[in-house]
Design brief:
The chain contains 5 helices and 3 strands, in the order αααββαβα. It has about 130 residues and is mostly helical. Helix 2 crosses helix 5 and helix 3 crosses helix 5.
Length: about 130
Amino acid sequence: MKLANYLIALTAVLATALLASIGCNTNTEPPSVELETILASVNEDNPGADAVTAFDTEGERFAGCYNQAGLVFPGIPPSDWPSIRETKAYWVLTGTTDAFESSHHLRLQERAWKYAEQYNTEMLNLSHPD
């Protein structure tokens, strides 16, 4: 009888945790849709132009992508990532992730990383001219 009560209580706790985690996710779009949306809003043909515009209006802000290491900044030396994260001098290409939902999502991710790398390289040149 004690085991049955324990299992019922454990099931209730796990069900509550699952429902709470589902409720915390306010993102209702799949990652590929998010990534399609953000890629449609940037100039993939000329990421450097986007960087110049952003630098002129907002200052130094890098493009971030998510992968298995967390939030990273393609085109920027990894040793600089912690300070970028700390100062919050970034924006994120939403929909980037380490878990691909399809081959289409993988292709979108590759486009996003290419964009971010070119954008960040130009942003770094603008903010640290030599």
